[in-house]
């Protein structure tokens, strides 16, 4: 036994000398992957610097619109649209219940879509004479300014800041901002979101309201509202905060989320019209007057009654 | 060093067990100076000896003989190794390099197709069309298998990095697509959002990595083809040098001995001459064939692959423009750009026209011509789609874009174009395999033949000089 040990020692000494006294090294890591970069919706970004006031800006009276006029004189904006053969409307195709593409039929449906069709019905007598153009929240004002669309019906809150660039119809719906979180979250409102990642669409009033909240959350901006739901489901944001209408559509798609807190803003939805087309504003207001008479309730009952409870159309306010 | 045994210098063998450790032998009295000096004097002495013996004729003869024999054997060895290397390189092109580039191309193609197909499936309404689902599944399966092949030799950190990106992100992509599907089935718009996220991942990360991998592998293939088609200057120089030396030796012998022929040296010269001719012919034939396998095969395939990928990506843009429904200007601009690369802004230039002029006379020319026809038809169908969408007839625009059963649709024209390009690429690959295999055959037996001829040259030289040297005894 003793001999054997000595031989072993001698051999290992020899081996050490041959190997040049280096350490043997470590086994190779076959998968040197420390963390995983999650996939993100296109253009998702951290917003450090949100400009402009949200709904809180009260420097004007946002609800007062031009008085209604339902006639279509020749040479008017509506006359040009009639010549063209279709009304071009900027809408959303990603917001469940308000403006979304029904994957089964491929058709656009929702409360906003119904309102847009009413405008077409008034011009053409045909609610289907509409060319829908899906736009993101951030594209709403540029689309109107560039003349890409005649009107925008897309959960579009009237604010004093926006009134500087475009015109709005009378208010056709009043929503309010709330918070959407996972069903197990103990967040109870916007006040509990300090330092947490909260998602909203780019250039939306919701994003500005989040940025203005105290304590300050970390605003994450995306192109479309449904991208927020994706990020919440993937655990990339802690909450989504926007109008209760949009949140209701998200909650409808996922039983593991809940809407919490009270409305902390009033979002006054209007139809956006290019600033120079005053005749169109008056015409749309006339359409909305008619819609308030019945079509509004019909559409509300179809899309929103179950989720948001009974409601009636807001009364118009003119300058 | 934690060992506690008696210190022992390296190289001293371990003492057998049971024996006492012998004392370290004392240093020899000879100082280091004398050994070193002896070593330093060695070359000087050798040169002196050689010059001394070169002064006599037999001494010079044996020097020349030794030189020639060593040179013959050296040339034989280097030549054989170098020819064998060349043959191995060519076999490697066929067995390895080209299949690898083809695998990388398949990864790139099937992933581009999966992206385009997923977008089409989204546009179609009702239950998911089974043919689109099958196409997507086939694309993903092919991409997976091709990636495993491409990963088998991703030597070089850059290629390995791309393979890592691909193998990490592909499962993530398919996961997103399946989430999109299950949301779509329930009628939720979140499905569209998941699909957009999947497409973003594909376009921002996966496809660029696949493209990079394809480019790296193609570049390697072309480099190796250039290597295999180049002139082997070293062998040429050595073998011609040997031939020259043999002839010079014979002239020298003739002057010294007044004999015109020395049979041994003549045999050696003839052997080297045969080696020169054989090598020259075989390597020329082989280089030309490998060169044409590269020029008429690989380069054409590469051109057509680039055309096919541009077409696929343009197709994805065409459908995504409709998916975006009015918000797709960026996709439309990209379509115009990609189609410009494919067929030129006028429809008569771009990659397809380039391929048409360079495949003239090759088997793939017919496919390329049909591809150009189908590209024109696709362009026309696409313009109709844009017009329908522009005038508000969205449903008709979608139908014309994705209904492959309608011969006039953009989908049908694109599918025909894709098939023709696939056939043309396959034809280019066949040219590569044919020419390169024939090139490889031109080198058959050259390596052993070269060795045998070099040995004959060495033996001839030995015999030739042995006879002459005997005369001096």
UniProtKB/TrEMBL annotation, chain A:
Coiled coil regions in record: none
Leader sequence segment: none
Residue ranges constituting the Solute-binding protein family 3/N-terminal domain according to the UniProt record: 86-307
This protein's GO CC annotations: extracellular region; outer membrane-bounded periplasmic space
Entry keyword annotation includes Hydrolase: no
Region annotated Disordered, chain positions: 46-78
Keywords associated with the record: Signal, Transport
Protein name, per record: Transporter substrate-binding domain-containing protein
Organism: Prauserella cavernicola
TrEMBL record, chain B:
Transmembrane helix recorded as keyword: yes
Chain ranges passing through the membrane: 61-81, 230-248, 260-281, 445-465
Region feature (Disordered): 1-34
The keyword Iron appears for this protein: no
Alphabetically ordered keywords of this record: Membrane, Transmembrane, Transmembrane helix
Pro residues bias: start-end ranges: 13-26
Protein's recorded name: Secreted protein
């Amino acid at each position: 036994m003793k001999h054997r040990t000595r031989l072993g020692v001698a051999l290992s000494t020899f081996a050490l000398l041959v190997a040049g006294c280096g350490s043997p090294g470590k086994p190779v890591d076959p998968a040197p992957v420390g963390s995983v970069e999650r996939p993100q919706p296109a253009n998702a970004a951290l917003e450090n610097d949100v400009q402009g006031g949200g709904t809180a800006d009260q420097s004007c009276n946002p609800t007062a619109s031009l008085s209604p006029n339902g006639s279509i004189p020749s040479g008017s904006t509506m006359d040009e649209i009639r010549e063209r053969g279709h009304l071009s409307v900027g809408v959303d195709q990603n917001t469940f219940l308000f403006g979304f593409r029904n994957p089964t039929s491929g058709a656009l449906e929702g409360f906003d879509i119904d309102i847009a069709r009413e405008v077409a019905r008034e011009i053409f007598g045909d609610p289907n004479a509409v060319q829908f153009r899906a736009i993101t929240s951030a594209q709403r004002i540029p689309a109107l300014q560039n003349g890409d669309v005649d009107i925008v019906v897309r959960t579009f809150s009237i604010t004093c800041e926006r009134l500087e660039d475009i015109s709005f119809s009378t208010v056709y719906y009043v929503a309010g901002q709330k918070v959407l979180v996972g069903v197990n979250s103990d967040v109870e409102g916007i006040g509990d979101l300090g330092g947490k990642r909260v998602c909203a669409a780019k250039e939306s009033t919701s994003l500005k309201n989040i940025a203005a909240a105290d304590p300050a959350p970390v605003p994450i901006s995306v192109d479309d509202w449904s991208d927020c739901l994706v990020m919440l489901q993937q655990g990339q944001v802690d909450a989504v905060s926007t109008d209760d209408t949009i949140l209701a559509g998200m909650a409808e798609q996922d039983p593991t989320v809940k809407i919490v807190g009270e409305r902390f803003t009033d979002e006054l939805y209007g139809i956006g019209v290019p600033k120079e087309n005053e005749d169109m504003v008056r015409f749309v207001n006339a359409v909305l007057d008619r819609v308030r008479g019945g079509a509004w309730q019909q559409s509300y009952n179809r899309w929103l009654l179950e989720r948001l409870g009974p409601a009636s159309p807001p009364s118009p306010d003119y300058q | 060093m934690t060992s506690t045994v008696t210190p022992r210098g390296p190289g001293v063998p371990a003492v057998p067990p049971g024996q006492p450790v012998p004392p370290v032998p004392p240093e020899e009295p000879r100082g280091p100076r004398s050994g070193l000096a002896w070593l330093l004097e060695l070359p000087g002495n050798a040169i002196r000896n050689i010059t001394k013996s070169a002064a006599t004729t037999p001494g010079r003869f044996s020097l020349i003989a030794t030189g020639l024999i060593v040179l013959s054997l050296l040339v034989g060895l280097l030549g054989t190794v170098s020819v064998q290397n060349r043959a191995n390189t060519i076999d490697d092109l066929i067995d390895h390099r080209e299949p690898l580039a083809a695998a990388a191309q398949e990864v790139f193609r099937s992933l581009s197709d999966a992206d385009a197909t997923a977008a089409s499936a989204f546009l179609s309404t009702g239950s998911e069309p089974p043919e689109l689902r099958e196409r997507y599944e086939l694309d993903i399966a092919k991409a997976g298998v091709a990636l495993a092949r491409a990963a088998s030799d991703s030597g070089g950190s850059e290629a390995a990095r791309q393979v890592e990106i691909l193998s990490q992100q592909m499962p993530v992509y398919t996961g997103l697509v399946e989430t999109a599907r299950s949301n779509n089935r329930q009628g939720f718009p979140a499905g569209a959002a998941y699909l957009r996220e999947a497409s973003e991942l594909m376009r921002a990360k996966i496809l660029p990595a696949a493209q990079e991998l394809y480019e790296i592998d193609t570049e390697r293939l072309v480099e190796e083809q250039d290597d295999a088609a180049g002139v082997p200057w070293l062998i040429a120089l050595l073998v011609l040098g040997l031939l020259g030396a043999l002839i010079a030796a014979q002239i020298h012998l003739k002057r010294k001995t007044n004999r015109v022929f020395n049979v041994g040296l003549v045999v050696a010269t003839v052997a080297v001459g045969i080696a020169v001719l054989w090598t020259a012919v075989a390597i020329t034939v082989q280089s030309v064939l490998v060169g044409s396998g590269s020029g008429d095969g690989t380069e054409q395939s590469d051109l057509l692959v680039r055309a096919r990928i541009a077409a696929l990506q343009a197709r994805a843009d065409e459908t995504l423009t409709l998916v975006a429904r009015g918000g797709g200007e960026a996709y439309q601009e990209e379509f115009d750009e990609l189609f410009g690369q494919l067929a030129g802004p006028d429809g008569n230039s771009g990659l397809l026209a380039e391929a048409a002029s360079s495949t003239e006379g090759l088997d793939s020319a017919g496919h390329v011509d049909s591809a150009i026809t189908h590209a024109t038809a696709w362009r026309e169908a696409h313009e109709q789609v844009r017009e329908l969408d522009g005038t508000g007839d969205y449903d008709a625009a979608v139908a014309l874009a994705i209904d492959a059963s309608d011969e006039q649709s953009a989908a049908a024209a694109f599918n025909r174009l894709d098939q023709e390009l696939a056939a043309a690429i396959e034809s280019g690959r066949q040219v590569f395999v044919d020419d390169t295999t024939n090139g490889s055959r031109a080198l058959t037996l050259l390596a052993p033949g070269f060795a045998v001829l070099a040995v004959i040259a060495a033996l001839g030289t030995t015999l030739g000089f042995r006879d002459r040297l005997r005369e001096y005894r």
